[in-house]
Amino acid sequence: MIELTTPFSEEAIRELKVGDVVSISGYIYTGRDAVLPKIIKAGEEGRLAEMGIDLQGAVIFHTAVSPAGVGPTSSNKVEIESSFEPLSKLGVKMHLGKGAISKETVKKLAENNAVFAVIPPVTALLESQTVEREVVAYPELGMEAMNRLKVVKYQAIIGAAKGRSIYDK
């Protein structure tokens, strides 16, 4: 088990390889279909700092936050998977979700020293390891707003790193 605390350094990400099991602690961001394009646009316009969002060394967890808790959504949805490269360029080091992603996305992750980690859909467990939550952007999107969570020992498996994927055959 590799213990990681956010924000991640370039070196910490460079050391990860496909199949590593990681435990993530610290603050992470959430985002899925509705909010990720808005965050990318805000980043490209240089507005993230004024929103209180710092993506340097960050984790984006592909989830919505509801009273029932948090659980991963499929990362290969067009709106989500197309966010990997621009968010990595904005500083995100780990994209956390579930499902196979394309070879092109795996390549773009490698080019930006970022990784994709898969997390099992275990909403109740993740809720017990989520110790703080705060809506940080686009509250009008309800459960799909961007949140900042403080987590303790989220466990995930590195699914794509260095141009390789666990889904490669």
What does this structure look like?
By secondary structure, the protein is α/β, with parallel strands linked by helices. The chain has a single domain, classed as Fe-S hydro-lyase, tartrate dehydratase beta-type, catalytic domain (fumarase). Helices cover 23% and strands 33% of the residues. It has 6 helices and 10 strands, in the order E-H-E-H-E-E-E-H-H-E-H-E-H-E-E-E. It has a 5-stranded mixed barrel with strand order 2-3-6-7-9. Strand 6 (94-97), helix 5 (103-111) and strand 7 form a beta-alpha-beta unit. The longest helix has 9 residues, at 36-44. It starts with a strand and ends with a strand. The model has no long low-confidence stretch (mean pLDDT 92).
* CATH 4th-level superfamily: Fe-S hydro-lyase, tartrate dehydratase beta-type, catalytic domain
Name of the top-level CATH class = Alpha Beta
- The count of DSSP E runs of length 2 or more, i.e. the number of strands, is 10
Mean of pLDDT: 92
| First-to-last CA distance | 25 Å
Give the topology string: H per helix, E per strand.
EHEHEEEHHEHEHEEE
CATH topology-level name: fumarase
Number of helices: 6
Shape label = globular
Largest sheet: 5 strands, mixed, barrel
Structural class per helix/strand content?
alpha/beta
Strand order of the largest sheet: 2-3-6-7-9
Strand content: 25-35%
Q: Fraction of residues in helices?
A: 10-25%
Number of domains: 1
Radius of gyration: 14 Å
The CATH architecture comes to Alpha-Beta Barrel
State the low-pLDDT regions, or none: none
